[in-house]
Amino acid sequence: QVQLVESGGGLVQAGGSLRLSCAASESTFSIxxxxxxxxxxxxxxxxxxxxxxxxxxxxxxxxKGRFTISRDNAKNTVYLEMNSLKPEDTAVYYCNAxxxxxxxxxxxxxxxxx
Length: 114
Fold this sequence. Notes:
Helix content: under 10%
Number of strands: 10
Order of helices and strands: EEEEEEEEEE
Strand order of the largest sheet: 2-10-9-4-5-6
Radius of gyration: 13 Å
Protein backbone atom coordinates (compact mmCIF):
# COMPACT_ATOMS: atom_id res chain seq x y z
CA GLN A 1 0.00 0.00 0.00
CA VAL A 2 1.36 3.41 -1.00
CA GLN A 3 2.13 5.81 1.80
CA LEU A 4 2.08 9.56 1.26
CA VAL A 5 3.65 11.74 3.95
CA GLU A 6 3.09 15.48 3.75
CA SER A 7 5.14 17.96 5.78
CA GLY A 8 6.15 21.60 5.93
CA GLY A 9 2.92 23.24 7.00
CA GLY A 10 2.62 25.74 9.81
CA LEU A 11 1.36 29.12 10.93
CA VAL A 12 2.47 32.09 8.86
CA GLN A 13 1.43 35.70 8.51
CA ALA A 14 -0.22 36.95 5.35
CA GLY A 15 2.41 37.64 2.72
CA GLY A 16 4.67 34.93 4.06
CA SER A 17 5.97 31.75 2.46
CA LEU A 18 6.00 28.02 3.12
CA ARG A 19 7.41 25.02 1.29
CA LEU A 20 5.47 21.80 1.51
CA SER A 21 6.90 18.36 0.80
CA CYS A 22 5.21 15.07 0.07
CA ALA A 23 7.16 11.84 0.07
CA ALA A 24 5.72 8.73 -1.55
CA SER A 25 6.68 5.16 -0.78
CA GLU A 26 5.69 4.06 -4.28
CA SER A 27 8.41 3.08 -6.72
CA THR A 28 6.20 4.05 -9.68
CA PHE A 29 6.09 7.66 -8.43
CA SER A 30 8.03 8.94 -11.41
CA ILE A 31 5.43 7.82 -13.95
CA UNK A 32 2.52 9.36 -12.09
CA UNK A 33 1.03 12.80 -12.60
CA UNK A 34 0.93 14.33 -9.12
CA UNK A 35 -1.26 16.96 -7.56
CA UNK A 36 -1.46 19.11 -4.47
CA UNK A 37 -4.92 19.45 -3.02
CA UNK A 38 -6.27 21.51 -0.15
CA UNK A 39 -9.30 21.25 2.08
CA UNK A 40 -10.39 24.23 4.16
CA UNK A 41 -12.28 23.41 7.32
CA UNK A 42 -15.84 22.44 6.49
CA UNK A 43 -15.31 22.61 2.74
CA UNK A 44 -14.58 20.17 -0.06
CA UNK A 45 -11.10 19.18 -1.09
CA UNK A 46 -9.89 21.00 -4.23
CA UNK A 47 -7.01 20.42 -6.60
CA UNK A 48 -4.72 23.46 -6.68
CA UNK A 49 -1.58 22.38 -8.57
CA UNK A 50 -0.58 19.60 -10.93
CA UNK A 51 2.74 18.34 -12.24
CA UNK A 52 2.81 15.68 -14.91
CA UNK A 53 5.32 12.88 -15.13
CA UNK A 54 7.03 14.97 -17.81
CA UNK A 55 7.24 18.03 -15.61
CA UNK A 56 4.45 20.16 -17.07
CA UNK A 57 2.57 22.17 -14.47
CA UNK A 58 -0.85 23.72 -14.08
CA UNK A 59 -2.55 25.70 -11.33
CA UNK A 60 -5.97 26.79 -10.24
CA UNK A 61 -6.43 30.51 -10.90
CA UNK A 62 -6.45 31.44 -7.22
CA UNK A 63 -2.84 30.35 -6.74
CA LYS A 64 -1.31 31.16 -10.13
CA GLY A 65 1.79 33.30 -9.79
CA ARG A 66 2.09 32.53 -6.07
CA PHE A 67 2.49 28.73 -5.84
CA THR A 68 5.04 26.56 -7.63
CA ILE A 69 4.84 22.77 -7.82
CA SER A 70 7.94 20.71 -8.49
CA ARG A 71 9.11 17.13 -8.13
CA ASP A 72 12.25 15.13 -7.46
CA ASN A 73 11.75 11.66 -8.86
CA ALA A 74 14.99 10.40 -7.31
CA LYS A 75 13.47 11.13 -3.91
CA ASN A 76 9.87 10.17 -4.79
CA THR A 77 8.92 13.63 -3.54
CA VAL A 78 6.71 16.44 -4.78
CA TYR A 79 6.96 19.98 -3.45
CA LEU A 80 4.72 23.03 -3.26
CA GLU A 81 6.41 26.38 -2.83
CA MET A 82 3.84 28.88 -1.57
CA ASN A 83 4.54 32.61 -1.62
CA SER A 84 2.46 35.70 -0.91
CA LEU A 85 0.18 33.60 1.25
CA LYS A 86 -3.32 34.85 1.99
CA PRO A 87 -5.73 33.95 4.80
CA GLU A 88 -7.91 32.17 2.23
CA ASP A 89 -5.03 29.72 1.63
CA THR A 90 -5.65 28.31 5.10
CA ALA A 91 -6.41 24.60 4.73
CA VAL A 92 -5.06 21.11 5.17
CA TYR A 93 -2.85 20.36 2.18
CA TYR A 94 -2.53 16.90 0.66
CA CYS A 95 -0.71 15.40 -2.28
CA ASN A 96 -1.81 12.45 -4.37
CA ALA A 97 -1.45 10.87 -7.75
CA UNK A 98 -4.10 12.10 -10.17
CA UNK A 99 -4.89 8.82 -11.89
CA UNK A 100 -3.82 6.09 -9.45
CA UNK A 101 -5.93 4.87 -6.58
CA UNK A 102 -3.55 5.80 -3.79
CA UNK A 103 -4.73 6.31 -0.25
CA UNK A 104 -4.61 9.83 1.15
CA UNK A 105 -1.94 10.83 3.63
CA UNK A 106 -2.57 12.73 6.83
CA UNK A 107 -2.03 16.09 5.18
CA UNK A 108 -0.26 19.13 6.58
CA UNK A 109 -2.03 22.12 8.09
CA UNK A 110 -1.34 25.56 6.66
CA UNK A 111 -2.71 28.50 8.60
CA UNK A 112 -2.31 32.04 7.32
CA UNK A 113 -3.09 34.82 9.76
CA UNK A 114 -4.20 38.26 8.64
